[in-house]
Amino acid sequence: MKNVEGSLGQKEEDYFETAKKYLLTDPKELLDLLKNYDKDKIPDSIIKNLERKIMPDPDFCLERAKTCNLAVKYLFSWAQAMYDYNKVFTQTKPLRDKLEATRKVLAE
Asked: pTM of the predicted model, to two decimals?
């Protein structure tokens, strides 16, 4: 990943230039990335950063996204859906684990 100063391999806080260069130049590739995103394996660090840096921002809301353009509206909706999915997926993990254990017992 390239940071704003141009060094390779460094994390950056201002993602807009990178997004323009690597994501927005090929909308089909971006759509494929979003559709094929492994929502069952979202790292906890991403969720924590989202909760710490993005979610508290009053501009991170559907109403604000709608005022930008359709692409922002749908990207916001996707990001919110991934966040919501992760919360439910995490909360239901003990139930899914128990179900799997019960299935194994029944199979034996």
From this structure: 0.75
